[in-house]
Amino acid sequence: MLPDLKIVQLRHFVWVAELHGFHAAAERAHRTQPAISLSIRDLENKLGQSLFEKRNARVARPELTPFGVQFLGYAKELIAHHDRVVKDMNLIAQHKSGHLRIASVPSIASRLLPDILTRFIGDATDLHVSLFDDNSEAVLAMVESQQVDFGIASLWEAGSDIQFIPIWEDSVGVVCRCDHPLAEEPQLGWRQLRGERLIANGTSRLLAGSEAEELVADSQFYMSNMISLLAMLEAGMGITTLPRFAFPPEHGQLRFIPLSDPLVTRDIGIVRQANRSLPVAAQALFEFILRDNELEPDDW
């Protein structure tokens, strides 16, 4: 059975060798000189070899034996490796190191996550982040296949092993060009949209089961990509419905008008594996988002 070498004993040995004395090593370790001598003697017993020549430590500087000279390099290597691991794990425990993988619907990825991640990461230069933005189905698939630590999505369909924690509520509105006749309305009802050329998109399913469901069925166009959808709206091809978070607020050519009849909302939240612990950094971000929205992590 291999001997159990304690890091503290290795430190004592290195300090005696480098500081050229048991007294200096004792001061460095904040221990008594007999305690350092006992530590070195115990280390020698474990190794089965003497580390220092048999001399009077009070009158002569300790001299390494040939075995001690050879072991000194290994001792330093072990101490350096130990300290490096402890430092790395401490950074990970403080979510300042590691690799954080998140998937999110584009509306949250572009509107909310930049500010959240900026405040969460701070000066943690060793924490790497991979962010994948896609629709809710793709986000759920990445969570289920464990490609990401957790996802941010609206919950369409999920398996029994997926946990959904609602964070934000989003309402649907109508988006059109600023020069469109509807653009001056403070809010709209779905009947006012009859006869308009509607461009459906991936979020149009939110109208399913509501009074406005027929609008989706009557859509002349379908756009799956947000950039293409906005380009079509800018060109005056028609109007669309979008959740408020999905509408770029700085857009100068388009207008968002709340849809009040029917009032259609969606919950957006964190999706994660129900029975699997998150990595340290992901758990810290999860709790940060909950507290940022005045929710308590212990409730989940």
TrEMBL record:
- Which Pfam families is this protein grouped with? HTH_1, LysR_substrate
Q: Which UniProt keywords apply?
A: DNA-binding, Transcription, Transcription regulation
Task: Give TM segment ranges.
Answer: none
Tell me which domain of life the UniProt entry assigns to the organism this sequence originates from: Bacteria
User: Record's family?
Assistant: Belongs to the LysR transcriptional regulatory family.
Question: PANTHER family, from UniProt?
Answer: HTH-TYPE TRANSCRIPTIONAL REGULATOR YBHD (PTHR30419), NITROGEN ASSIMILATION TRANSCRIPTIONAL ACTIVATOR-RELATED (PTHR30419:SF8)
- For this entry, the protein name equals LysR family transcriptional regulator
Q: Which organism is it from?
A: Pseudomonas cavernicola
